[in-house]
Amino acid sequence: MILNYRVKYCFLWLTLIAILVIVSPTYSTKARSYLLNKRQCTMKRQHQLEMLMARTAPVGNESRERFPESFEQLQKYCQRLARILAQTETFFKDCYDKTVRDYANILIYTSKRNMKKYCSKKQTRFVAEMLKLAPCANRHVRNNPVPIKCYDRFINETTQLIGIENDNLKIPHACCNSMVLLKCAEEFMYSIPCLQKHTPMLLDYFRTGTSSISDIMCGEYNDQTDSCMRLGKAPKPVKKLKQIKYVTPMALLIDLMESIHNVTSSPTLQFK
User: Fold this and answer.
1) Residue 26 · residue 244 · CB < 8 Å
2) What number of other Cβ atoms are within 10 A of residue 148's Cβ?
3) Could you tell me the residue ranges of all domains in the chain?
4) Alpha helices, DSSP H only, in the chain?
C-alpha cells in the first residue's frame, strides 16, 4: 500500500506479512535449517530474490521504483510484481520443507488476492483512488525517514526474539511488534495532509490483505484485543547472536521460525 511494499503488498513481506523494506543490521542464530539440501537451493539465491523485492518496492534504501501515477505505469509495475511473486513461489516450493511451505502458501495466496484488487485489468474506483494518492506518496513517503524508523524498530525488536529462551513467546511478541508497526504507520500517514482522509481506507486495505496470515500466526495477538498489553515486554535474549543483514522481512521470519525448536508445538502455529 502507500506506506511501503510490506504495507502495500502484504509483506512480500511480512515475508514476502509484509507487509517496509531497507537494508538494516540484524542478528541471527540457527536452531535448525528449513532450507533443503538441493543444488538450486542456496542462501545466495534467496538473497537475490530479496534484492529483487527490495528494488521493486517504492520505498526503501534499495528502491528503484516510484509509486505508479498512471494506469499504464501501474500495469507495467504489476507485471514486474507478478514475476517476482512467481519466482518467490517457485523458490519456496522447491527449496523449503513443509513447515515453511505452509506459511509461504498462505502468504503467496494473500499477496495474489491483494494484487488482484490493486492490479486490476480495469481502472476500478479503488485503483483510481490509489493512483490519485501516488503523487502525494512519491513526494512525502518515498524518502521520508519516519517510515524507515518505524520499520527499523520492528526489525530490531523482532530480531531480538530469536535469542530469547521461551520459544512459545516468540511468535506472540512478533505479532505484537507488527501491531506497533501498524500504529506507527497510521500515525505517520495521518501526519501527511494529502494522505489524512485516505488513511482509514489504506489501513483497512492492509488489514484485509493480511488477515489470513494474521489469523493463523497471531490469533488473539492483534489490534482488536488487549492481549499484547497483557503480554508485556519481551524477555531479553539469552543467546549470543551473529550479526547479519536482512533486505526484507522474509529472511527474518524464516530465522525466527528456525529458532523455535518445535515449531508445530507452538500454540499459535498449528497446521492440520
Assistant:
1) yes
2) 18
3) 5-265
4) 5-9, 43-56, 71-95, 98-118, 125-140, 145-160, 170-191, 199-218, 227-231, 249-259
Give dist(CA 251, CA 55) in Å, integer: 16
Query: What 3-state DSSP class applies to 28?
Result: strand
The β-bridge partners of 25 are 245
**Chain position carrying cell 518515498:** 142
Coil, helix or strand at residue 58: coil
Q: Give me the residue label for grid cell 515486554.
A: 233
Contact by Cβ (8 Å): 172, 106? no
Nearest to 185 by CA among 12, 4, 53, 57: 4
Distance CA 212, CA 193 (A): 31
Q: What whole-number distance in Å separates Cα of residue 188 and Cα of residue 141?
A: 9
Picking from 186, 250, 269, the residue whose alpha carbon sits closest to that of residue 18 is 250
Residue-wise pLDDT tens for the chain (272 aa)? 444 333 343 333 333 333 333 222 333 333 346 788 888 888 888 888 878 877 777 666 666 678 899 999 999 989 988 888 898 889 888 998 887 788 778 778 877 877 888 888 888 988 998 899 989 988 888 778 888 788 888 888 988 999 999 999 999 999 999 889 888 988 998 999 998 888 888 777 766 666 666 777 788 998 889 999 999 999 998 877 666 666 677 778 878 888 887 554 444 444 33
Distance separating alpha carbons of residues 272 and 112, to the nearest angstrom: 23
- pTM reported for the whole predicted model: 0.75
Question: Which residues 6+ apart lie within 8 Å of 187 measured at CB?
Answer: none
For residue 258, what are the contacts with CB-CB under 8 A and spacing of at least 6?
A: 30, 31, 32, 33, 34
